[in-house]
Amino acid sequence: MNHLIPLPASLLPTQLEFQLGPDTQILVAPATPETLRVSEFLAAALRRATDYALPIVPDPPAHARDQIFLTLHDDSTLGAEGYELNLTPDGVFLRAQTPAGLFYGIQTLLQLGAPLSAQEPKTWRAATGSIRDVPRFAWRGAMLDVARHFFSVQDIKRYIDWLAAYKLNRLHLHLSDDQGWRIEIKTWDKLATIGGSGSVGGKKSGYYTQDEYRELVAYAAERFIVIVPEIDTPGHTNAALAAYPELNCDGVARELYTGIEVGFSSLCLDKEITYQFLEDVIRELAALTPGEFIHIGGDEAHATDKTAYTQFIARVETIVEKYGKRMVGWEEIGQTKISARAIAQLWRGEYGAQAIQQGAQVILSPGKHAYLDMQYNEQSPLGLHWAGYVEAQDAYAWDPATFSADIGESNILGVEAALWSETLLTFDDITFMAFPRLTAIAEIAWSPQAARNWESYRQRVAAHGARWQALGLHFYRSPQIDWE
Amino acid sequence: MNHLIPLPASLLPTQLEFQLGPDTQILVAPATPETLRVSEFLAAALRRATDYALPIVPDPPAHARDQIFLTLHDDSTLGAEGYELNLTPDGVFLRAQTPAGLFYGIQTLLQLGAPLSAQEPKTWRAATGSIRDVPRFAWRGAMLDVARHFFSVQDIKRYIDWLAAYKLNRLHLHLSDDQGWRIEIKTWDKLATIGGSGSVGGKKSGYYTQDEYRELVAYAAERFIVIVPEIDTPGHTNAALAAYPELNCDGVARELYTGIEVGFSSLCLDKEITYQFLEDVIRELAALTPGEFIHIGGDEAHATDKTAYTQFIARVETIVEKYGKRMVGWEEIGQTKISARAIAQLWRGEYGAQAIQQGAQVILSPGKHAYLDMQYNEQSPLGLHWAGYVEAQDAYAWDPATFSADIGESNILGVEAALWSETLLTFDDITFMAFPRLTAIAEIAWSPQAARNWESYRQRVAAHGARWQALGLHFYRSPQIDWE
Question: Which domains does chain A carry?
């Protein structure tokens, strides 16, 4: 009914619905610790919206009406993260090969449903239909810079909740930079105690203890998000150089740095203690990291000799591999010899071809589309603009497969939205920069290119704005979107 | 399901349908000549799309499944043109107060349905839902200039078919101008035989006999379209001045004019024969016109003395009223004394306030939005651009109620798309200029302002483009629209 001209004064397509009832149960088969945990995630969300008990029933004997069925079954076309979701007036049927697939189907179900709080008892309903869904890219990431300013465990958890809601599966934490070091390293404790005491402008310093970090890793993993820790090397290292004089070529500790210039610091690549330092840090990070990736930075090493840089990256990859992880680095590592297991993260797009020629895959984080710290426009109160102003449409309207002539779909591991924090102090600052651009990158990473277009996105995100508003999320009311 | 972010790879809302079957009947109650004729219009369209007989059953004894029910019933909220349309899997229920309301409901039903010709027998289906619909404005017009170039009875009928499909209800024919006179007047027969032999460039001349004109009036009326005849006075009269020397102040017949300049001709307002001429023409036009309106032009009388113009318009309105009609004139009549029954048609918007102060209503045909003869852009092969280039969005994205601070919703009788034909020779030329702008004006005239927006229109009109293409309609593939 949606193509009529002229538009009728009032138009109501026939709509069938599934509605929760007082006897609705959540049936799970097979019942495993993971499927039960995922079911509990759904039950908790629906209990918040309704007055119903919504018990979880493991391995139910038979089907009944008005229930929600979560089932693991073999269907190789759904892959590791896909799902099928069928909503009928008589029940909701969610099927996947993996708990992750069930989890993403639940995110979809929760977006589809609307709580009905005007009536008693509070209930919940969703339009009927069927969805079959698999992600385009395996790496659907968000990077958060906690080095320029520190953000609390609580803030990171709240951000993780939003990443999960939009089906992102990587949280890349930029844990060290010139201004601060944010992760406790037991063998080099002053990294955190001295290096962690700095920040841009001297505000919002701090660090995560290893226990806190493990808590974050577990919280993310429950939401099928892998935390990718980054220790930036050999540049962007002033905080470490301030904590330990022996890491400097001249043996003199640097001052803590509170500015925002880049490219002036470097580890001393001639000293063997530098590699001992790196091995200790990477070993401890690897022990904290169930995920397969360690990010070693490698960007903007302007104060490092080019030949020394090349040898350095090779040696660092050896250390990362020794502890069973894959090396991720910013695109500059493409200039050096890297293995086919390495991953180059493009931010300007200069060295992607060199990485690909070595068999490596790339993650796309182009500054002009995916840098969430870029100002939306000249009036934006937060952010920088060295890559230009990035409005919502700039973040949305690009295709990874045509981003560069050198980079084909199969070379692309995924897409990541990067949020640097030079100008950000609070959780509200983070979300103001992230929404509605993070959701744009999430859709680029998940949805088939042919299915998506800006007009459709701008209309859908307007409905999300109403939900953000209701949940108290601070976001940018882009004038490109007709917010509801 | 249409707000998900990220968009699923595949998404299918549950869809219910009404489908025609071999036993489907069209049931009509009460059966009157008009309701039966309207039913036949529907039956004919559906028979063309299917293999079914679709008999019309007057005043059926009882309801049955799979039928289409057309019913007149009292519901004052539907007014003279509104309708209710309910499509269920078991039947289609169309209700209105008037045959016109049924006719507009049928237009909606025909847009909703899709023929299924791939299968045997050919059938037809439409998604279920309910619509309640009344027009915003009583006057939903299209003006066609047949004076600069003549268009055949057949061409006019084809244009009427398209006007009806988009719920327009006025066809304003510009029957005379400097270049040609297009309607037979028995008492002044040389108007047609001499005045009708001219045209822009000397191509496509001619006139309608009174019998042909009556045929057009009847054809339009069957589609609930009132034909509004315009004889342009006192300027734009060179064709009449060429036919009759006595209408000129100097008693000398003018040459036929084939150019496109305006504003050089004038009836001789000092001669009593001029008023005899006008009375004869208006009397014969009124006799041919069951509708309540006679359009007397009145625009661009640059060769007429201002005081004489004022007295002239008053005298012409007296004649129009004498024959039981309401005077419509271009906005310049707002400068003169007119009755509250008169209607001023705005094209520049200068004299609207003066007309309204006298109690008259206005029709909006602003050049920069509603003049379909304006070029779409600098490359347009047809059209002029004195009012600017008018792309699809320019035609669509304006609101009559905010067009002028002096003109409120209640002052506006309606909206009319004007198509002047200086550069148009063929039916394809007409439709190239009309589509997709005529449909934009049709929506402005019919649909509530709050319901409509450009993004929605551009998506809907893309689907219509596919239908236009299939039906061989020549139209402008505006780059603003993602044509299907």
Answer: 10-133 (3.30.379.10), 139-470 (3.20.20.80)
